[in-house]
Amino acid sequence: xxxxxxxxxxxxxxxxxxxxxxxxxxxxxxxxxxxxxxxxxxxxxxxxxxxxxxxxxxxxxxxxxxxxxxxxxxxxxxxxxxxxxxxxxxxxxxxxxxxxxxxxxxxxxxxxxxxxxxxxxxxxxxxxxxxxxxxxxxxxxxxxxxxxxxxxxxxxxxxxxxxxxxxxxxxxxxxxxxxxxxxxxxxxxxxxxxxxxxxxxxxxx
Length: 205
What we know:
The protein has helices at residues 3-68, 75-97, 103-127, 131-134, 137-172, 176-179. By secondary structure, it is mainly α. It has one domain: de novo design (two linked rop proteins).
């Protein structure tokens, strides 16, 4: 084989290699960017849940204040709600700062929210024994706001789980399962509702 033919073969081999590397590089970049976008959507969905939960926590002081004057014999119920709100607020910074929450973190966070929701329901149940409280416009307004907040919590939680499912699918499927580990992109846990937690706070006067 003469020199010119060898050069042509080498040239075509080099071009073929460059094309292969270019295709692989483009596929790698596309997969990486797709994973980043999906991960960002998970973060945004989680932020919406936290915003909804924070909205409920922000309503608690006003709720306690409006009820305190009427339910003087239910001090323990009010103190329990106040303590639960304080403990939940201490968990919020960790949730916002950690993009790869463990299942244990999610479970602890959800359990604390479940306890607060239960305490609020208990307070509304107690209010049935106080006609003057039930007639309070401020209390009724807060009750409406809390019902709306509970509904939003349920919707944002469902949206988050849907977003996580799509992200996890990308992480597990080829070629995402090759790219994700290189950048510590891990499967994200779902928000799993406990029995009855999907029911919004409802009070009928």
